[in-house]
Amino acid sequence: MDSEKTISVLNSLIQINNDRIEGYKTASDETNEADLKALFSEFQATSVAINSELRNEVSRHGGTPTEDTRITGKFFRVWMDVKAALTGNDRKVILESCEYGEDVAKKTYEETLENEIENLSYEQQTMLKDQHSKLVADHNKVRSMVAALA
Question: The dihedral of CA 119, 123, 129, 134: what is its sign?
Fold first, then answer.
């Protein structure tokens, strides 16, 4: 297993979680609805905890944890959609945009666990599967809230 590749894989997941942290911070700042603020705060806390684990693992391998975000392409559009929806105060659009963002994060983990397995130790794979489960739980909360508005 190549430590540089492992560090790179873990740093890419840190970036996704940095995106979630920044995105949900923005969303929380933009909404006036208490339940959405609480939800966004909870999702932000999920990624803060996940990032702590990822950063420790990168450091353990002699790497420097990234501070960057990937707010480009799809993820950037998601947060712009959330911000626009918040401005219009359309709860369903806000939650649908959040669900799409959660889809992106979830898919990134799934692709990592599928395509980067040779660059991850068994312990790292277990950690990432646990983190993926937490992201899926957040995704499912948003999905159920969207379904309740249908």
Answer: negative
How high is the pLDDT of residue 25?
82
Exposure string for 103-139, b = 16+ CB within 10 A, e = fewer: bbbbebbeebbeebeebbeeebeebbeebbeebbebb
Tokens 């401005």 — which residue?
A: 87
Q: Is pTM, for the whole model, over 0.85?
A: yes
Using alpha carbons, select from 46, 42, 29, 143 the residue that is nearest to residue 95. Answer: 143
The answer to whether 31 and 44 are in contact (CB under 8 A) is: no
- At residue 92, does pLDDT exceed 90? no
Residues 143 and 127: their CA atoms lie apart, in Å, by 24
